[in-house]
Amino acid sequence: MYDMKNLGKLKTLDANAPEGMKAFWAFDKAAMAAGAIPVKYKELMALAVAFTTQCPYCIEIHAKRAREAGASDQELSEVVVIAAALRAGAAITHGTHALA
Q1: Would you state the torsion angle of the CA atoms of residues 85, 87, 88, 92, taken in this order, to the nearest 10 degrees?
Q2: Orientation angle between helical segments 39-53 and 56-68, nearest 10 degrees
Q3: CB 92: neighbour CB atoms within 10 A?
Q4: What's the CATH code, domain 36-99?
Q5: For the chain, which residues make up each domain, given as ranges?
Q6: Tens of each residue's pLDDT in the chain, 100 residues
Q7: Whole-model pTM?
């Protein structure tokens, strides 16, 4: 189901929903551009989100971009642990709802 070749179909989305997709690509570009937060850190944050949403496309794309921005194996590994901690923390805090 998840094959990076599927991303070639983004051109179909661009053709069939041009205004929405144009807005999406502009937003994505602006969000990931260097600003107060350097690109490397934005890519590491995107990777952490990708781990928690478990999107294989995002994991592959943002891991590659993080490396291109200079991220090390240690930084990528710490991002994995951060994502795991937040995911586990959400289970713990949501678990309090079961104790009503």
Answers
A1: 130
A2: 160
A3: 8
A4: 1.20.1290.10
A5: 36-99
A6: 789 999 999 999 999 999 999 999 999 999 999 999 999 999 999 999 999 999 999 999 999 999 999 999 999 999 999 999 999 999 999 999 999 8
A7: 0.89
